[in-house]
Structure formats: structure tokens, C-alpha cells
């Protein structure tokens, strides 16, 4: 929770698990989220598949299943062409990755996974600032081994 308390907002790229996760986060900070493939009906009703918003002048598109960098699924490719975000935040792979996509002119961010289920060995999250329409002070936060709860 210490990382949540210092953030302005929390962005969750899906596979939330339980509504309680969102309730606890929202007690501390505002939450923007999308549902993931493991999420049940109540989370799918509460959170969208695609969340498009602007933050500090940066157009952000968030979804759970994007496909790999530059090889996006059809639904996402259509959204990218229509909305032209500068930042794509996605999940699903459990692989922490940040890279620039030249074709779509956007920064691709996948924070990895911070849950206790999955094949990842270390729980990760991304922390960054949006300043003057740019991502600044990006860091990967390691939250310990997958099997531990913090």
C-alpha cells in the first residue's frame, strides 16, 4: 500500500480478481481500471474493456489484452487508429515491458503482474509522472516474489 499512498492515481490494467481490491485502492487514491480475462461479471460491469482518457495533456488508452508490442489484436488496432493515444497501458502477459511503438507513435507500457497467481516470479508495477505531456521519472517497482502478499 505504500506505493498507492504516494500516487496521484492508480491505473489497473485488468485481472483485478475481486471487487475488494478496488474498494481498498479507492479508499486511498482514485482508480482507473479495465477488466481482465479472469475478472467476473461484476467487475466487467463496473470497468470497461477499453478506458480512454486524458491525463496531464497525455491521451491514454488502457486495455487488458493488447497483443504483443506492434502486433496488437484487431479491436485494439481499430481503437489506436481512431483515438491516437500517446500512451498504451496493457496487461495480460505478466511481462513487465516499456517500449516506444514507432508505427502507432505511442509509448507501450505493461506493468507485469502484482498478483499472487500466474507464472511470473516477481510482482511488478510501474510508477511514473506525466509532466508537460511527457512520461517522466519512470521506474519499475518490484513487490517481492509472486507467492508473497504485501
Q: What does this molecule look like?
A:
This protein is of the alpha/beta class and 150 residues long. The chain has one domain: 4-Layer Sandwich (Purple Acid Phosphatase, chain A, domain 2). It has helices spanning 2-6, 19-28, 41-46, 74-83; strands spanning 10-12, 31-33, 50-55, 58-63, 67-68, 71-72, 87-89, 96-101, 106-111, 122-131, 134-145. Strands 3-4-7-9-8 form a five-stranded mixed beta sheet, with helices on one face. The radius of gyration is 15 Å and the shape is globular.
Supply the key terms.
150 residues, alpha/beta, Purple Acid Phosphatase, chain A, domain 2, five-stranded mixed beta sheet, 39% strand, globular
What's the topology here?
Blueprint: H1 2-6, E1 10-12, H2 19-28, E2 31-33, H3 41-46, E3 50-55, E4 58-63, E5 67-68, E6 71-72, H4 74-83, E7 87-89, E8 96-101, E9 106-111, E10 122-131, E11 134-145
TL;DR of this structure?
With 150 residues, the protein is an alpha/beta fold.
Q: Count structural domains.
A: 1
- Provide a count of the helices: 4
Distance between the termini: 8 Å
CA gyration radius, whole angstroms: 15 Å
Counted beta strands: 11
Q: What percentage of residues falls in helices of 4 or more residues? A: 10-25%
In the CATH hierarchy, the architecture is 4-Layer Sandwich
Low-confidence stretches: none
Structural class: alpha/beta
CATH topology descriptor:
Purple Acid Phosphatase, chain A, domain 2
**Amount of beta strand:** 35-45%
- Main beta sheet: 5 strands, mixed
Q: What's the CATH class, please?
A: Alpha Beta
Shape: globular
CATH homologous superfamily descriptor: Metallo-dependent phosphatases
Strand order of the main beta sheet, please? 3-4-7-9-8
Question: Mean pLDDT, as a whole number?
Answer: 90
Order of helices and strands: HEHEHEEEEHEEEEE
Amino acid at each position: 500500500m505504500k506505493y498507492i499512498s504516494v500516487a496521484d492515481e492508480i491505473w489497473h490494467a485488468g485481472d483485478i480478481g475481486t471487487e475488494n481490491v478496488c474498494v481498498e485502492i479507492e479508499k486511498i487514491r482514485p482508480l482507473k481500471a479495465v477488466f481482465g480475462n479472469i475478472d467476473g461479471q461484476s467487475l466487467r460491469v463496473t470497468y470497461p474493456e477499453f478506458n480512454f482518457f486524458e491525463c496531464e495533456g497525455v491521451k491514454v488508452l488502457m486495455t487488458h489484452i493488447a497483443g504483443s508490442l506492434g502486433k496488437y489484436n484487431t479491436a485494439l488496432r481499430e481503437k489506436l487508429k481512431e483515438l491516437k493515444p500517446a500512451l498504451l497501458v496493457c496487461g495480460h502477459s505478466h511481462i513487465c515491458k516499456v517500449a516506444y511503438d514507432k508505427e502507432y507513435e505511442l509509448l507501450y507500457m505493461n506493468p507485469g503482474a502484482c498478483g499472487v497467481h500466474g507464472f511470473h516470479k516477481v510482482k511488478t508495477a510501474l510508477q511514473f509522472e506525466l509532466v508537460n505531456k511527457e512520461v517522466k521519472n519512470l521506474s519499475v517497482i518490484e513487490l517481492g516474489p509472486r507467492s508473497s502478499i504485501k
